[in-house]
Amino acid sequence: MKAISYSAYGSADVMEYGERPDPKVGPDSVLVKVRAAAVNPVDWKAREGYLQGALDAVFPVIPGWDVSGVVVQPGVAVDEFAVGDEVIGYVREDFLSRGTFAEYVAAPVRTLARKPLSLSFEESAGLPLAGLTAYQVLHRNLKIREGDTVLVHAAAGGVGSLAVQIARHAGCRVVGTASTRNHEYLRSLGAEPVEYGDGLVERLRELVPEGFDASFDTVGGDALKASADTLAPGGRLASIADSEVFSYGGSYAFVRPDAADLAQVAELAERGIVTVHVDRVFPLEEAAEAYRLNQEGRTRGKIVVTVDWGTP
Predict the structure, then answer these.
(1) Is the bond preceding 60 in cis, omega lying within 30 degrees of 0?
(2) Does residue 281 surpass a pLDDT of 70?
(3) How far is CA 267 from CA 83, 117, 170, in A?
């Protein structure tokens, strides 16, 4: 099969497009014919070696954890999915090797859910990691409730934009930080936009003088400190970007594959409660360029890579 892979840690320059062996399909997995895969910041952080302390790399590594596609072969123990089923997945294992930036991926059923019929394959590919992250942090870590005032950092990004929509659906008032070019986009999602940068704490306090009931940090550093400084008494704080959150009494979150949670997120998409904004689409062979763009950090929504299978 054709795939993107890398044989050593490094920049996007180490990524190569070429032939790799077809995946073996384990008893509890299905073989997915990949239609689209989404770029996530964790992918290039893993490629550059930042996750070596948590995840071993079995080189050559095929990157990517997000996928949308079609089941072409179920494992012998699988009865949840059949040939022809359209699925989405957050296909993360506890090591780096067998990712989704390929024509095929063998995906454990615990990582999959049915693709929302209302979304394209490109939109659906952007849903699993970002949607699960937003859903799990808001409901498990921050335990949001109707009537809460919630702060979301980098609210126009992949995780942030989905967090805004999920929190709004839960009956929360949502304030989101973003550059001014994304303020109208945030308003369209139901958030009140605030420009990040110098003076952020003052702007947040002016908008929400009583403080935030829950704060979702996706950036770390100064954004995390601003979150801590603007919490209401008893407010909850969670970060997916900075372990310093513990020093502020908050929690650190790393998204986990969960078929039930992913099905809930997919249902929200199916009902039109959440949408996925696809900023750019690249063919598989140009995945390195997709990663370079993602590393610039100015993406609205998701960057997606597609596999060209010709006319379906």
Answers:
(1) yes
(2) yes
(3) 22, 10, 14
Superfamily of domain 2-127+276-306: Medium-chain alcohol dehydrogenases, catalytic domain (3.90.180.10)
Supply the pLDDT for residue 260: 98
Return the domain boundaries, the chain: 2-127+276-306, 131-252
CA dihedral for 73, 79, 85, 90, sign (positive or negative):
negative
Spatial contact of 47 and 15, defined as CB atoms under 8 Å apart:
yes
| Nearby residues of 198 by Cβ (< 8 Å), 6 or more positions away | none
Sign of dihedral through CA atoms 25, 75, 263, 116?
positive
Contact between residue 106 and residue 24 where contact means Cβ atoms under 8 Å apart: yes
**For residues 268 and 276, is the Cβ–Cβ distance under 8 A?**
no
Average pLDDT of the residues in 83-88: 98
- How crowded is residue 52: how many other Cβ atoms within 10 Å of its Cβ? 12
What CATH architecture is 131-252?
A: 3-Layer(aba) Sandwich (3.40)
Q: Round to whole Å and give the CA distance between 183 and 22.
A: 44
Cα distances (angstroms) measured from residue 76 to each of 67, 80, 98, 277: 22, 11, 20, 36
Comparing CA positions, the residue from 79, 40, 14, 113 lying closest to residue 301 is: 40
Task: Give the mean model confidence (pLDDT) for residues 77-94.
Answer: 97
Helix axes 259-270, 128-136, angle to 10 degrees: 100
